[in-house]
Amino acid sequence: MKKILASLCTIFLFSNIVTSAKAEINFLIGTWAEEPLTPFVEAFEKETGIEVNIQTFPFRDLLATIEVRGNAQADDVDVIFVDAPLVPSYAVRGMIGPMDQYFADTSVNAIFAPAGIAAASWNGEMYAPPLNNSGQLTYYNKDLLAKAGCAEPSMIEAERVTWEEIVDCAKKITDEANGVHGFIFDQISRYYQLQALPESAGGGSGVCEGGLSVKGCLTNDGWMKAGQFYYDIHNTSNISPKGVGPDQTHELFGLGKIGIFVGGSWNNGRWADTDLNYGVALHPYFEGGKVVTGCNSWHIGVWNYSKQKDDAAKLVRYLTASPEVAIHYVEEHNSLPAHNSAILHVAEDPKFNNFPGIVMNLATYESANHCATRGRTPGFLEFEEIVNTSFEDIRNGGDPASVLADAESRIESSMRRYK
Amino acid sequence: MNFFKRQWMVPYLFLAPALIGTIAFKLYPIFIGFWESLIYTSFSGGAEKRIFVWFENYQYLFDDKIFWKSLEITAFLTIIINPLQIAMSLGLALLLMRKSKFIRIIRSLYLLPIGIALPIATIIWGLMLDPNQGLINGLIGVFGIPPQPFLVNENQALWCIIAIATWKGVAFWMLFLLAGLEDIPKQYYEAAEIDGATPFQKFRYVTIPQLKRTILFVFVADTAANFVLMVPMIILTKGGPLQSTNVLIYEGYRSGFYYQDWGRSLSIITILTVITLIVIGLQLLFLSEKNEGIKVK
Asked: DSSP characters for chain B?
């Protein structure tokens, strides 16, 4: 009996030694990216012999998990998804390391679009190469617009629709008794989506020059105009419904309950199997104001506390610098590319000149020409959370002036840690 | 064996596992939390610095409008939810003490919420309270009441959370009270009946005094549980609208996990711990049975 037990122990120990000899890296990603990335991660495993353990989290939980693991300086994480505006925050706090040495044999300018490199960098060093980009457009329900007698918004720059025209049309469409509303934002009450409003009104990103203060930058006339606009569409004209979360907005549009939907290119595939008779147009702007749209998306970085940084960097490079991954992301997931090869693919493939493929072309145009990079600050995590909460408060009836003043004071107080 | 002959050690031996658990998982984290609340983490100049600042984090809190608003909401929630839950639990326990053919089935039905995890119950309630397509608005619409905003309204959101937490908590606390009621000797009620006591008098002079210890336990445990209630806030309201559901525990959680301001977060949690201890201390002081032993002159 003793001999059997001893043999089993030996086998167990030996098997552990064999297993531990194989490199294994832990990769924290968003749930939405599991499906598109898994085939490429598997290909990477085959090619390199490095095992990748994918751990998926919903958006908010992903950020919280990264914070908790970073605070613990955990070494059981190797590669992470990085939301573009969080690059400075993670870099300053030492959670991700510079990647330039892993791209030393090539030119990053030849691989990525300039905006992607800019979003990936802090203090002149590239920390997290871009996986994809994003672009915002106006989608509209052709039937509802026709019924209300509204003109369809245009894809032509000179005829770009204004927010004022959107509101006028949405008022005609809104029929609250039947649950129909004229307008909705895709990512409701989120800074990424709504930054275009104050930017268009001349208010800037909300973060002051230098990235360490918001004093006067969140309460200027542009932000006040944007806040009032957001208040009015939910509380005065009621063209946009309350109590709907960002995960429900595209469903409402797909069900024909929304006239005009301003959202990302990735939504296009969501309505492919519905009977929805919809069209697409350029992003709105305030009459007399700047044309601005949201942009940038997800990046991938090497965890600074990882014990296998070289293997981790191989995975990052494989996923971000491969044209195949970027083109797959475009083709299968309507995600805007940050990779030059995929950008070229969108420009050259004729299917992107006709509806619905044209969504990719329009979004690429918006992102390339009217991209408003989110506020660059090491305190972005706090900034975004407080701004998101403030937009939600305004949506729920809070006075825009006092809500924004409160937000400015809170963010300014939290920024003291970075000064 | 000699060890067990030292009888004075026996109780300590039995207490040791619980004591070690309490020190490791309660007292030590409280101490660490307090210690970290005295530390300020700065990223000035691009490098992380941990600076011991004594009570500076607390000083910042006392000048912080959000903290005071949060404290006010916590106080309001505590004042409303604890008596409400105890009263409803007691009422329910008294009802379920009545003799009926279906009492076992009825008791099981009332106990159902205990079997549902709070996050799941919260999500279900969130769907029912949806202002646009929720079941509750559909139901009240039958009576001609216009649709209510519920969780997206500053004046209704906290009441909705009180309702959800009460629905979930009442059956649990009722179990203790039911056990307490079962323990009251029947002879006391018979004697009261012979003396001509009314049902209210029986309740006032027999049930309540006999149930005092159970009520005290439930009151203390319920208060402690409600001070850390934040699942509905995380899932449904994120402390809004307009901070109307932003209780201290949630503000502490948000400061730490969302804003990474651990000094502020742990200062809030330390203050909440102190408040909880004070409130529970007061409850024990005013509600515990006085020593009724014979006084020796």
From this structure: -HHHH-GGGHHHHHHHHHHHHHIIIIIHHHHHHHHHTTEEEE-GGGS-EEEE-TTHHHHHHHT-HHHHHHHHHHHHHHHHHHHHHHHHHHHHHHHHTS--TTHHHHHHHHHHHHHS-HHHHHHHHHHHT-TTT-HHHHHHHHTTPPP--GGGSTTTHHHHHHHHHHHHHHHHHHHHHHHHHHHS-HHHHHHHHHTT--HHHHIIIIIHHHHHHHHHHHHHHHHHHHHT--HHIIIIITT-STTTT--HHHHHHIIIIIT--HHHHHHHHHHHHHHHHHHHHHHHHHHSPP--SPPP-
Q: Residue A23 above 70 pLDDT?
A: yes
A143 or A3, greater pLDDT: A143
Tens of pLDDT, residues B236-288: 999 989 999 999 999 999 998 888 889 999 999 999 999 999 999 998 888 77
Task: Note whether B64 contacts A397, CB cutoff 8 Å.
Answer: no
Per-residue DSSP letter, A339: B
**Residues spanned by the domain of B254:** 57-287
What is the full DSSP assignment across A6-65?
HHHHHHHHHHHHHHHHS-EEEEEEEHHHHHHHHHHHHHHHHHH--EEEEEEE-HHHHHHH
Query: Which residues of chain B are within 8 Å of residue A67 when distances are taken between CB atoms?
Result: 257-258, 260
Is A178 in CB contact (< 8 Å) with chain B? no
Q: Write the pLDDT tens digit of every residue in A160-212.
A: 999 999 999 999 999 988 889 999 999 999 999 999 999 999 999 999 998 89
CB under 8 Å to B92, separation ≥6 — which residues?
B110, B170, B171, B174
Partner A contacted by B64 (CB < 8 A): yes
Whether residue B40 lies inside any domain: the answer is no
- Domain A136-294+379-418 classification at class level: alpha beta
Which residue ranges does chain A devote to CATH 3.40.190.10?
Answer: 2-133+296-354, 136-294+379-418
Q: What is the CATH number of the domain that holds B148?
A: 1.10.3720.10
A402 touches chain B (CB under 8 A): no
Return the closest-CA partner of residue A326 out of A311, A345, A339, A307: A339
Q: In this structure, are residues A394 and A227 in contact, taking their beta carbons and an 8 Å threshold?
A: yes
Whether residue A179 lies within 8 A of chain B, CB to CB, comes out as yes
Does A243 sit within 8 Å of B131, measured CB to CB? Answer: yes
Considering the entire predicted model, what is its pTM?
0.85
Q: Does domain A2-133+296-354 have CATH number 3.30.1330.30?
A: no
Helix or strand run (H / E) with residue A164: helix A163-173
Contact A382 B261 (CB under 8 A): yes
Residue found under tokens 């610098």: A321
- Whether residue B149 is preceded by a cis peptide bond, meaning omega within 30 degrees of 0, is no
Is B262 part of the contact surface with chain A (CB cutoff 8 Å)?
Answer: yes
- Quote ipTM for the complex: 0.80
- pLDDT tens track for B45-66: 767 788 999 999 999 999 888 9
For residues A197 and A395, is the Cβ–Cβ distance under 8 A? Answer: no
Going from the C-alpha of A289 to that of each of A156, A204, A219, B145, the distances in angstroms are 17, 12, 18, 44
